[in-house]
Amino acid sequence: MKKIGSIILATALLLCFSGCGLWMNGSYRSEIPHREDSNAGTHLSTEVSSYSQLCDTLLQMISNGTQSEVIYFVNMDSNQMKFHMPRAIEEVTQKTPLGAYAVESITFESGKNTGKNAVEVSISYIHGRSEILRIRKAESVNDVYKIIDSALNNCDVSATIYVNDYEAFDATQYVQDYVDLHPDICMEMPQVTATVYPENGKDRIVEVLFSYNTSRETLRQMQQTVEPIFDSAELYVRGDGDLAEKYYQLYSFLIERYDYSFETSITPSYHLLRHGVGDSKAFATVYARMCVRAGLECAVISGAKAGESSFWNAIILDDQTLYVDLLACNASGHFQTKTKEQMTGYVWDYDMDLSASEENQ
Fold first, then answer.
1. Which residues pair with 197 in a beta bridge?
2. Which CATH number fits domain 134-213: 1.20.5, 3.40.1800, 1.10.8, 3.30.110?
3. Comparing 33-37, 171-175, 285-289, which segment has the lowest mean pLDDT?
4. What is the DSSP string of 197-241?
5. pTM of whole model > 0.70?
6. What is the DSSP string of 33-60?
7. Which of 136, 181, 361 is nearest to 284 (CA)?
8. Which CATH number applies to 217-360: 3.10.620.30, 2.60.20.10, 3.40.50.2000, 3.90.1300.10?
9. 41 pLDDT band (50/70/90 cuts)?
């Protein structure tokens, strides 16, 4: 008897200190202690009296990155509590942008504390508090584009955006177009992964990930090397002057820098302007950007030359679209513009040229 009494006493003491659940008459009862956060005395407990308040509380927990919290149910019996909890978890994790983006799982244990129905909620995260704080807000697709632009300019590895009135867009294509148009800023074309949370709904979170082969520090150093060269090109043709002469001057500025070797690089503008290594796309994109920065109209055309993939430029001169193949000009030793009819051996999508673009506006 003495031994049995000792066991009962030890068990009672253990339960008092641990607050663990206890099996009684075949049912589980969880006694949840009152808990406080160690930071600034913030209470990790909340009272709710409706389903909507329960959903709001779960969302607030997620927003704060809270991992565990006690929720007390006021004016609800245990059956209502057990009915609402799974519904609220599904609502928050599958239908709200923040929950769908941030949460891996939400679990709970139900019981009573000081006579009140309560649950202890535990949340595990895919994206934590620091990532939640980096979410940017956008009211339109144009706002989304601006945020992506900023991330690309900074060589960031991601952009996470809360979009009101979400409209579908092709993130990969947008990034490709932006990088091609800005070789003075974007040193490498990243691989793009875009995920939308949730799959349906008016408001969504869009997470765009950029994967680079080159480190962020190196990319930033490349930017600092390339930018002064573009500045010099812009100054080279500044002021009033003949447009045809300016197009030629920028061609000369670019072509006369090196005896080029024609190879493809993952950091095209940097290797072209710093090491004299580039392909037709590197020449076309760098030349187009120099022209645009100098106030000249110039676009990059992709297509095929003699059956092989190639890039060249379209310019506007005397209200006419003309074409310039910098590699062909370099090979011949002089700058030459051609009309569409003169571009024999070239095949491309005419919707991409400047005259077609103007007609569609």
1. 205
2. 3.30.110
3. 33-37
4. ESSSSSSEEEEEEEE-SS-HHHHHHHHHHHHHHHHHHHHHT-SS-
5. yes
6. PP-B-SSTT-BSEEEE-SHHHHHHHHHH
7. 181
8. 3.10.620.30
9. very low
